[in-house]
Amino acid sequence: MNVAIFSEVLAPYVCGISSYVAVLKKGLEALGHKVIVVTSSLHTEQSVFKDGVVRCPAKKSMNKYGYQCKNIDDKYVMKFLTKFAPDVIHIQTDTKIGYMALNIADKLRCPVVFSVHDYYLDRFASDSSVLTWKIKTLIEKKHFCDMLDNSNVIASSNKRAASFVRAAGRKRKVHLIPSATDRSVFNYKNASDDAVRKLRKRLRLPQNSVVAVFAGDLSIDKNLEFVLSAFARHIKKSDNIHLLIVGDGTELEYLKSMSRKFKITDMVHFTGMIAHNLMPAIYSACDIYVCSSDDALMSMSFVEAMSCGLPVLVKEDKEKYAYNMIKDGVNGFVCKNEAGFAKYLKKLSAFNTHEKRQMRSIVRRSMRDTDAEYMAKCTVKVYEQAMKAFKINVDIIK
């Protein structure tokens, strides 16, 4: 099968979608399928193909990622994809690159799968005015609905996506595809104690402290204000607990100003954008992964961190989706409020070296079924359903 995957973002941009695409590509190719990824980049003046990826020129944008494809009618991409002849097109982002995918699918007459990774209502920076927020919400809702309306099959890593689709006013079934990662790469055993010490020194993290980490796109839906507030209200310097925030996004400067306002800059460390190939080492140098989003889908960094043996501390949500992968007290913890969040961090700080290593082993074992090939096999089944749905539509038109 020839598969064309369209995603506005890809490594070195650090976010769940770029990680998801990389793992999916590797898994599909391991199964014998041919995969081309089409993405956008601020660092190219013309579309280029290298290592299985077509990178199109991008321009800065006010969207969630900070940039988007310049030209959805790129002749080079059209010519390249015509020659490649995809059996299915898989859209990951409902931005300009998603519209490019729809255009090409229409011209090449091939089925489309759209993966829901986030929700249009969560996309706007903290400094947006009410009017700006409402206008952008309408625009983003249109983009989201355009992808839904023009795709043969809708997919997601979490059943919560079905509620997002309903909220957009669409009645579409959402096919579940489990998130996965490359367990051979994301493995804490790959990092020696000496390497961990050196990395902590480089990141200015105390060697004997407990380090909580978040990694990903710093957007408002991640609700990192909750984490910073919990540190400010419930964590003391003497607790020797630090927070490492990895990534870039619309909320970076706001979160930095918030940490200054709370006077916790000595406990909170921002790295900015980090090359994705450094993430296994960073996870291995930390002790716990934190996820405070109220309604996020399955985060790829969440999966990567657990593969590296990090227990996950998540904020409970009203639909209890936080429990999908977390066995409370075994491979992670679920908290209800800031005090509970701090309690679990302090609990972990009391663990000795043996207890921490034992927990890493337990957490990693709990992720045994999250490998790239398994995810790819599940995705291929969705592709086959899309191809059948497309054929039915064509037959009806005829």
In short:
The protein contains 13 helices and 15 strands. With 398 residues, the chain is an alpha/beta fold.
Descriptive account of the structure:
The chain is an alpha/beta fold and 398 residues long. The chain has two domains: 2-180 and 371-387, Glycogen Phosphorylase B (Rossmann fold, 3-Layer(aba) Sandwich); 188-365, 3-Layer(aba) Sandwich (Rossmann fold). Helix content is 40%, strand content 18%. The strands form two sheets. Strands 1, 2, 3, 4, 5, 6, 7, 8 and 9 form a nine-stranded mixed sheet that branches. A six-stranded parallel sheet has the order 12-11-10-13-14-15, with helices on both faces. Helix 1 crosses helix 13 (372-397) and helix 7 (224-234) crosses helix 11. It is globular and about 65 Å long. The mean pLDDT is 88.
| Main CATH class of the largest domain | Alpha Beta
- Mean of the pLDDT scores? 88
Taken as a percent bin, the fraction of beta residues is 15-25%
How many helices? The count is 13
Q: In one word, what is the shape?
A: globular
The biggest sheet, with number of strands, parallel, antiparallel or mixed sense and barrel status, is:
9 strands, mixed
Span from first to last CA? 25 Å
What's the architecture of the largest domain, going by CATH?
A: 3-Layer(aba) Sandwich
Total beta strands: 15
What letter string, H or E per element, gives the SSE order?
EHEEEEHEHEHEHEHEHEHEHEHEEHHH
Could you please say which CATH topology of the largest domain applies here?
A: Rossmann fold
Topology:
Blueprint: E1 2-6, H1 16-30, E2 34-41, E3 48-50, E4 53-60, E5 67-69, H2 75-84, E6 88-91, H3 96-108, E7 112-116, H4 130-149, E8 153-156, H5 161-167, E9 174-176, H6 193-202, E10 210-215, H7 224-234, E11 241-246, H8 252-261, E12 268-272, H9 279-284, E13 288-291, H10 300-307, E14 312-315, E15 332-335, H11 338-349, H12 353-365, H13 372-397
Parallel strand pairs: 1-2, 1-6, 2-4, 6-7, 7-8, 8-9, 10-11, 10-13, 11-12, 13-14, 14-15
Antiparallel strand pairs: 3-4, 4-5
Helix pairs in contact: 1-13, 7-11
